[in-house]
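#struct-help
A.M.: can someone run this one for me? Single chain, 573 residues.
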Amino acid sequence: MLQNLHVKNLALIDESEVDFAGGLNILSGETGAGKSIITGSINLALGGKVQKEMLRDPEKPALVELIFSVTEKQKQVLKQLDVETEDDEVILSRRITGGRGVSKVNGESVPASKVKEIASVLIDIHGQHEHQSLLSKKKHLEILDSYAKGEIEQPKKELAEAYKDYKKLVSELNDADVDEEERLREVSFLEYEVGEIEEAGLTVGEDEELETQYKRFINGKKIVEALNQAYQYTGGMDQASELTGRALRELSGVSVYDEKIADMEETLTQIDNLLGDFNREIADYLDDTDFDEETFYHLEKRLDEINHLKSKYGSSIEEILSACEAKQERLLRLKDYDTYLADLKEKVKNAEKKLQKSCEKVSDIRKKYAEKLVIAVTEALKDLNFLDVVFEMRFDVLSNYTANGYDDAEFMISTNPGEPVRPLGKVASGGELSRIMLAIKTVLADQDEVETLIFDEIDSGISGRTAQMVSEKMNLLGRTHQIICITHLPQIAAMADAHYLIEKAVSNGATVSKIRRLDTAETVDELSRMLGGVEITDKVRESAREMKELAAKKKNKNSKKRPVCQEVAGQFG
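D.P.: on it. Structure tokens below:
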């Protein structure tokens, strides 16, 4: 669960910190107070796009930090993502400087893609316009697959692999479809290329050895002069070797008198031997170094030949030989074209059969879970004042295979008695879509390990009795999950386990947004504002107090049915 949010130098926020509670956390405030900044900053910390204009002061860095407490199951999933928890906590942070962000997990820098992967285990954010995604049939299939994740994940991976193999073979078959004249032309060209490579008689490592010899030849004079000079210094008259020998003779005459001198004699003997070996090695090298114009010519010609082949077939001899093998295989196919084509068509046929079976397997799993999902969502919709709703999921088959199978699935709904079910996107209004998404989120929340759900103005387009039922559903969801909800509706706000007020203030001549947790009396004041608007009368205040009391009774009734999440009390700094 999200324990703490720390925001610095972002939009209207100078620097703020909030400790969230378990259960239902409500955030409210006047329009324009900066409520969207909260979800916006959380999105930034989770890898969202950085916009330079979001920085309050462009000359200073911005910072967003989230501290999560994690369950044992979440720890296991995070471990698979190479994330080790510290004291059962995970800290996600993002520092933004000049429009660029650096993300960290427990103090270690990670790419934004990795943060998103980790965040998917910890938190689910429903933005102000996310319910509009229900207008897309693709989203419907994603929701179903998320609901069936435990059983469908591996079959979908196998399906994607089968699709990849099938498409590869189909592509090869399409490329193989050539006319006779083109085939003969390609055969002739391949024979020339294979012959050119084979005639060269390449050996792996030959180019490196030749290049070493070439460097030695091209720098032969310089090498010989340097070696001769070195030999003179170490092996000539009155040079190192002779002088070392003299020194050794002097020491050998007195070494019997002192052990230290004997050790010196032994060391100098080793040096004398090394110098002798060194001089012989130089002499042998010089004897073997004989610049031969003809040898150099053939060496240079061979290197030119190899480099020419590299320019055509690969950057190394290994790549050239590999290219030769591929061309030989292609040549054999084209020479025995009818057999090759028949074999390829058989492979495509078998691959399609395998893909078809994978699609059927995935589709069967989807249809099985679709029945369960429809029942669960229907019940959730009834809880949200869709009293006569009919909710279905209809399956069609696409005209072509995809990496996601052949299912063309769509949610269907009827919200009024006697009306036929029709595609969700053509029936539901904006307010209905937000409730339908809430129902789906509620059902999915029981399927996964994500503990924290954020709803940004889920109350769009609803009021009255419907708002009351939405608040009760949010309260029930808060029994098993941490809910953070931004709302304008007092019915939903009254159900809060913790209520936070976001408000604008002037500090040092600048407008800033501040957030703080409300106590019981302040909660009634805020509910009064949400109920009464500009003028808050005693009657409005009494209504707010009564609304809060009725909500408490409803929550107590629900708490007997489901366990309440442990609250982490906090105060905004």
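A.M.: thanks! The longest strand covers residues 390-402.
D.P.: also worth noting: Residues 472 and 554 are 8 Å apart (CA to CA).
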